Amino acid sequence: xxxxxxxDILNSKLGAEGSGDIRVIFQKKTAVKQFEPELIExxxxxxxxxxxxxxxxMLAAATLLTQVEYTCFVQLLAKKxxxxxxxxxxxxxxxxxxxxxxxxxxxxxxxxxxxxxxxxQ
Length: 121
Fold this sequence. Notes:
alpha+beta; about 45% helix; globular
């Protein structure tokens, strides 16, 4: 499998309509001015099929959280509350974590995560 990119994560297919929920919340506290913190919170909920396997839920939840956190960091970068270096470092950390999870997913299931990502070799 090729290495994941942020585009792969943002374009992932996170499941179909169903009756289970995966809810993720990302919070980041930033200092707007001295003694003026701002809490940024982004929440997303995904409805998934009942009976979804543990590895599938793990990968769906991690993908959704990565999408939410990346979106938040894009907004922080636009507001100049993080530097481009901080943004790029966090993006690389997110990609590394997702790559590790897809490797674990393959080890647990014996299959590529093609239901989530369109990863051409």
